[in-house]
TrEMBL record:
The keyword Cell cycle does not apply. Residues 9-159 form the APS kinase domain. The gene is cysC_2. It is an enzyme of class 2 (transferase). It catalyses: adenosine 5'-phosphosulfate + ATP = 3'-phosphoadenylyl sulfate + ADP + H(+). Pfam families: APS_kinase. ATP binds at G16, L17, P18, S19, A20, G21, K22, T23. Transmembrane segments: none annotated. It comes from Streptomyces ziwulingensis. This is Adenylyl-sulfate kinase.
Length: 183
């Protein structure tokens, strides 16, 4: 019986503030990889929260549970040959570390990318109107404003989206995947 090698899977975890550009970068990267015929899933944090994590709030415990659920799904998919691109705020270092450890335990490649957009720039972009609601007193607990965001201590890649286009950012992530032999 002949066995064929399973294509390499990996998780590309894009973390950053709301409106940092995570989802835009993830979609551009995902589209490029799909156009090349690769098995790709973009696990958008907002979609996961609506379905897999429905009912969770925004307490620290609920945010941790949400991140760990996304981490489980991404690790299982990546372990089975899918390139998982995960744009999610994931504000707490310990939650992200739990995801990293889960990947390490199964020897599944995990690439943490910090989408390092200053809060002022995120507030100007304000894709979902969250910063405006927070400023108007209609929203509390906004990550990076009145709720903490703990930047990654040692990400594989830092994207400074103030200084590059979303396409350039996606191309930079693609280059890291290629350098690591994951394409």
């Amino acid at each position: 019986m002949t066995t064929t090698a399973r294509p390499a899977g990996a998780t590309v975890w894009l973390t950053g503030l709301p409106s940092a550009g995570k989802t835009t970068i993830a979609r551009l990267l995902g589209d490029r990889l799909k156009a090349e015929g690769r098995r790709v899933e973009v696990l958008d944090g907002d979609e996961i929260r609506r379905f897999l994590s429905a009912g969770l709030g925004f307490s620290r415990a609920d945010r941790d549970t949400n991140v760990r659920r996304i981490g489980l799904v991404s690790e299982v998919l990546a372990r089975n040959g899918v390139l998982c691109v995960v744009p999610v705020i994931a504000p707490y270092a310990d939650s992200r570390e739990a995801v990293r450890a889960r990947h390490a335990a199964s020897a599944t490649p995990y690439i943490e990318v910090h989408v390092a957009t200053p809060v002022e720039v995120c507030g100007e972009r304000d894709v979902k109107g969250l910063y405006a609601k927070q400023a108007a007193g209609e929203l509390t607990g906004l990550t990076g404003v009145d709720d903490p965001y703990e930047p990654p201590a040692d990400p594989a890649l830092v994207l400074r989206t103030r200084d590059q286009t979303p396409r350039e950012s996606a191309d930079t992530v693609y280059a890291v995947l290629a350098e690591r032999g994951l394409l």
